[in-house]
Amino acid sequence: MASCASSNHKYMRGSVAMKLNKKTAHVCLGDNEVKTGDKVLFYYNDCEQIDPEVGGLKGLCTLKKLGTGEVTKIHNSHYSTVKTDGSFKFKEGTLVQREKL
Q1: Sequence-ordered list of residues with C-beta below 8 angstroms from that of 55, at least 6 positions apart, any chain
Q2: What is the pTM of this model?
Q3: What angle do CA 71, 97, 99 make, to 5 degrees?
Q4: pLDDT surpasses 90 at 21
Q5: What three-state secondary structure class fits 62?
């Protein structure tokens, strides 16, 4: 597992660092960003298909919401555990952010 504290930290922040099972993950959001009980939103980048005529994407990528989870444990300044209801699929690298009220 790549560390949120590594030199890649700025790229890992706000993502699933390790999938524990289909409902639970360690995410790269720590004690200065979330607290136990906070709702977390899971997203993926929806990019249009590559257009061979122009050699690139047809359009821009947009964030699409997958589902929500709840912070169940803060491990340190880099990691938290989040539990979902299991109604959606996620993987390591899936984007996450604290739900803004």
Answers
A1: none
A2: 0.80
A3: 75
A4: yes
A5: strand
Find where tokens 């604290």 sit. Answer: 98
* pLDDT higher than threshold 60 for residue 77: yes
Cα dist from 6 to 13, 23, 26, 90, whole Å: 11, 26, 16, 23
Mean pLDDT of 59-71: 89
With bands split at pLDDT 50, 70 and 90, how would you rate the model's confidence at 1? very low
Which of 22, 38, 29, 35 shows the shortest CA–CA distance to 5?
A: 29
- Gap between the Cα atoms of 90 and 101, Å rounded: 23
Q: Name the amino acid, one letter, at 54.
A: V
Structure tokens at 59: 């359009």
